[in-house]
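Form 12-C: Joint structure prediction
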Amino acid sequence: MPVQLLKIRKEQSETPLPSHLQKEDLKHLQEGCNHTNKYIQGIVVLSYPLTKLRDGTDFFKIVLQGLDDLCSRINSINILIYGEMAEDCAKILRHGDTFIVTGFKVIKSPTAREDGRHGCHLEVSEEAGSTIYVQTKMLQIILPCSSGKSQYIFSVAPKYVYTPLNQLKDGTIVNLYGVVKFFKPPYVSKGTDYCSVVTLVDPSNAKLTCTLFNGNPDSLPKIYKVGDIVRFHRIKIREYNGQMQGITSGGFASLTFDGTVGAPVVPRTSSKMYTFMDEEHKTIEELRVWAASNISVPGPAAKLSSVQPMLFFDLTCQLIGKAKVDGSSFLLKVWDGTKCPYPTWRVPVEAKDLEGEKVLLHQLRNLMVDILVYDNHVQLAKSLKIGSFLRIYSIHTKQASADNEDVSRIEFHLHGGTCYGRGIRVLPESNPDVKELKAFLESVDLAGSQNMESMSSVELDDTFSGFTDFESYSQRCQQLSVTVLTDHQHLKNTELKTVITSAAPQQYRIRAKLRTYKPQKLHQSVKLHCSKCNSLQEVPDGDEFDFILRQSAITASNPELHNTSWYDSEMWTTQDQKQRNIVIHFIKHVEMLAWPENTLLMVEGGTLKEVWKLAERFKCVIPVRSTEDDLELLDLSAPFLLQGNVKYYGCKQCSAPKPMTCLSSIAAEEQPSWDPTEIAEVLGIVLLQYVFVMRFTLVDGTGALNAYLFDYENFFQIPASKILTSSFLQEKMQMTMNMLCPPGRKLGDLPWLECFIKSYNVRDAMKHQVCYQIFDTTIAGDVL
DNA sequence: GCTTAGGTTTTG
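Section 2 - Result
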């Protein structure tokens, strides 16, 4: 076959091209020159529909962008492909693929003036002796099952392209790796964000200084020391003072790794979603080895026992006390378990300003040192938690003797500014240096330095303040309401006695206590509601979905439905004994390269686990099966759409599913939002909404009634759609209910709830009943 | 949506 599809597998990171071939730069491409044994490489940025010429020959035109000079327009070139190759390419090629061609003809381009592309175009055909190599951008990754058995979990990852630091171009947004040569830990900038400056180097021997901003310091790279390795995604490259500079762009994300050869490869990140595969693992190991012999990593960290006067050093330590000094300086009292060999200074502060455990401050008085931090570091220092582990960068030791003393003492200053990476960083307990320090601190013998007597009054104070807090909380629950009305505040309260003796329908404002509620198992309160036919149903469990997926997997994928104008298809065969085929249809969209995980995909033949895995990695997943002439949704007892860990269902009664081609209209939008409501609509699905349905028994001393809570997200301020997959939200909801109706309390101790309720009539042939529903009510913000 | 900083020690 003249077109070779080169899939990159984990064991091969390089394109296996024949060795006699040499790469030709687009710049040097000229009509009439000899291009034997030369190849042209680029990214497919545009393709036209496959057509037939008058003589019946197939014809396919694509536009290729060179990798070398991404800004220059002349960097793109038209490729005209004829015959069987045209047909093959039309099937295989996707935007973003790397395309390599040899044996092409170079012809003067008649359209260069109009399209602004290269002055020549390439003609490619089997007759001309051309060969095409295509590198697809999606990867197949086989991961061993966590159980360690011989099964395999199948997973697809978006493939990122990483640019070496010597190939960065002004105005581009790129992904890259680098070894940290210099960094400033996140500090408060003069603008609205935290800032961190990071200088990277890599084996291309280029250097890149990046200025990173984010309102949340946790979103900046978690770099702890020079030599750490970072992976940046979507960093913007700009020219500044004649040098390339990196700066955060919209979707910036980073991973940071320990740079030590042999250390575990565990990414530090603030984002929950990231891709990290074997290939990346290998890259980190390679960079570690390179860095070990090519950049100077600082030696063992300084301890207080080894400080020298008049030097700068980084200290890893634990915070024991802190105190405000004046407007421009702040005191940190820290220790690292070793003793400074010189007399150290004591910064005088008022006892009431000193925060920290008095006993510990006293016990450690001979091992602790005072570090005075200035100016921009004050804000961060104030926010530090006592007991936390810190690395303080570039502390200045200064020797000075006070007027009233003979002996000179060492002072520790963290001066203002951020030169030389001066700053403070909190280290997590998982950090290996912290683990080591903790173990050491625990081994330090503090015997003999205890003095409990003077502490007793302080301890008493602490107990007392805790007691008053509880009292005030308890009083608040007694007097105020734990719920808030979101409307109709002008209405006056009505006693329950009046409510139950009045005719329905009506609306009331009431003040009552929650005697009890149903269901007690809160997860049972989540139902699916159809707003069209007003039906309520239970949320199907995973077994049902699994069964439907297995049933649909029996239908073989129809290859005629693969690779259309609006989606690219990829088929895999599982490596296990069953050899199942899984087909994924990636819906094309403009941002596919910068945001591969924003892709919506349709999957045929996947198992429950695989579909979940895909939903974790990609924006939306729709399970489908093939028919003769289109893809279609599965049975509506299965979710028709998965986004993250939320499963969206359609109403079986009200939906009239349409073929999947109807989705192409959304796919054609410039920036499709992939909103479930919108997707449901074009697919003829009436979306079921997750809702909490509960029965509250309310009492107020004059009477009692049962009121229904029917809530999508307003009452608990928790979306009903999220609760089943989040233990955090389940706990939050349980805590809220415990607050409204504390278990084991007498009625008098229950908090008041202010609610709106409406009464309504429920009639059938046999009986008539008045029911009540809570509305326009929410849990008070300070109760949550 | 924009800025912030843009490595190269304070002067307390």
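Section 3 - Comments
Confidence is low (pLDDT under 50) at residues 1-15, 138-156, 448-478 of chain A. Residues 182-184, 188-195, 197-199, 209, 211-213, 240-241, 243, 245, 247, 312, 326, 328-329, 372, 374-375, 394, 396, 398, 413, 415-422 of chain A lie near DNA strand B (CB under 10 Å from a C1').
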